[in-house]
Amino acid sequence: MNEDVFAWSLVLIMLLTNTLLSIYGIIYRRSLAKKLIGLTILSDTANLAFILIGFRFVQPAVPPVLTELSLENLEYLKQHAVDPLPQALVLTGIVISMAVNALIAFGIIQAYRITGSTDAKVVVKHFSEEVRGE
Question: What is the mean pLDDT of the chain?
Answer without folding.
Answer: 90
